[in-house]
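Whiteboard transcription, Tuesday session. T.W. wrote the C-alpha cells on the left side:
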C-alpha cells in the first residue's frame, strides 16, 4: 500500500509539473501568432471549450450561480492576460498576473471577517515593493498600458480564485468551460476583421487551446488530488519562471532589469509564504 501511495504521489508531482510546463508556453505563442489579441482569445477558447467537453462530457454543463460569476472573472483573466502579453513584455505580463495570491491575502480576511496574519502582511508589503519596480524607469505608453492590464489580470485571477474556493468542487471545471464560452462570445466580433489564418497561426493557436489550457487543466486536476496543496503551489511556480525564458529563446525579448528584480521579489515572497504557511490561494491557475 505504501509503495502504491508513493507511486501515485510521484505521478501527481509529474502531472503538476507537466501542467505548469504547458501553462508556461502561453507567452511565446501569443507573441509569435500574428493574429490580434482578441482573435487569439476567440480561437484559443473555442478549442479549450471543445477539449473540456471531450474530457469531462456532460458534467461540464452542471452549473450554479457561482459557476457563472467565476466564469465571468475567468473571462477577464484570459482576455486581459493575452492583451497584456501582446502589448508589454511576456515577463511583465506573467509576473504581474502572478500577484493574484497577494490580492487573495488582502481580500480573504475581509470576506471571512478574520484578522490579518503577520506573515501575510509582510508578504503583501514585499510583493507591492516588487510590483512597484515594473512602473519605474523609462516606460513607453505601451509598456505602461500593458503593465496595467497585467495587474488587472492578477486582480481578476484573485477574484476567480476566491470564487472557486467558495463554490463546490463539482462546479469548478464548469466555471472554466463557461469562461471560455464567454471569451469566445466577447471576442467574436474580432473575427470579422482582417484575419491571418495561415497554417503556423492556426497550429499555434490550436496548441494554446488544446494543450496550454484544455489538457493542462485536466492534467493539473489529476495531479492535484495526488499531492499536497503546498507541493502543487510551489511546482506551479515554474510557469512564471519559464514563460519569459521561452519568449527570450523564441523571440529574443529581454525584460528590463527592474522587471526581472521585481519578478524575483514577487515569486520569492509568494514561495516563502507558501512554504512557511501553506496558502490556499495558489492551488489553481490559469492564463
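and on the right, the sequence the group agreed on:
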Amino acid at each position: 500500500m505504501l509503495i502504491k501511495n508513493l507511486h501515485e504521489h510521484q505521478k501527481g508531482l509529474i502531472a503538476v509539473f507537466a501542467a505548469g510546463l504547458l501553462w508556461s508556453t502561453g507567452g511565446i505563442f501569443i507573441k509569435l501568432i500574428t493574429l490580434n489579441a482578441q482573435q487569439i482569445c476567440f480561437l484559443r477558447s473555442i478549442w479549450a471549450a471543445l477539449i473540456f467537453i471531450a474530457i469531462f462530457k456532460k458534467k461540464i454543463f452542471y452549473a450554479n450561480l457561482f459557476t457563472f460569476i467565476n466564469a465571468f472573472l475567468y473571462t477577464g483573466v484570459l482576455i486581459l492576460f493575452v492583451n497584456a502579453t501582446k502589448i508589454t513584455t511576456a515577463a511583465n505580463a506573467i509576473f504581474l498576473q502572478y500577484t493574484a495570491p497577494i490580492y487573495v491575502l488582502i481580500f480573504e480576511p475581509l470576506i471571512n471577517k478574520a484578522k490579518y496574519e503577520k506573515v501575510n502582511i509582510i508578504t503583501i508589503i514585499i510583493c507591492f515593493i516588487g510590483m512597484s519596480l515594473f512602473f519605474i524607469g523609462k516606460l513607453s505608453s505601451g509598456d505602461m498600458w500593458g503593465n496595467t492590464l497585467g495587474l488587472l489580470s492578477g486582480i481578476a485571477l484573485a477574484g476567480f480564485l476566491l470564487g472557486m474556493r467558495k463554490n463546490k468542487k463539482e462546479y469548478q471545471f464548469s466555471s472554466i468551460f463557461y469562461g471560455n464560452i464567454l471569451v469566445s462570445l466577447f471576442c467574436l466580433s474580432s473575427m470579422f476583421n482582417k484575419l491571418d489564418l495561415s497554417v503556423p497561426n492556426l497550429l499555434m493557436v490550436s496548441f494554446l487551446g488544446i494543450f496550454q489550457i484544455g489538457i493542462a487543466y485536466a492534467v493539473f486536476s489529476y495531479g492535484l488530488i495526488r499531492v499536497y496543496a503546498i507541493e502543487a503551489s510551489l511546482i506551479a511556480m515554474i510557469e512564471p519562471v519559464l514563460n519569459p525564458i521561452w519568449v527570450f529563446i523564441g523571440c529574443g525579448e529581454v525584460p528590463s532589469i527592474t522587471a526581472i528584480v521585481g519578478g524575483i521579489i514577487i515569486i520569492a515572497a509568494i514561495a516563502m509564504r507558501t512554504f512557511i504557511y501553506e496558502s490556499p490561494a495558489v492551488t489553481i491557475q490559469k492564463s
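Someone added at the bottom: Residues 246 and 252 are 9 Å apart (CA to CA).
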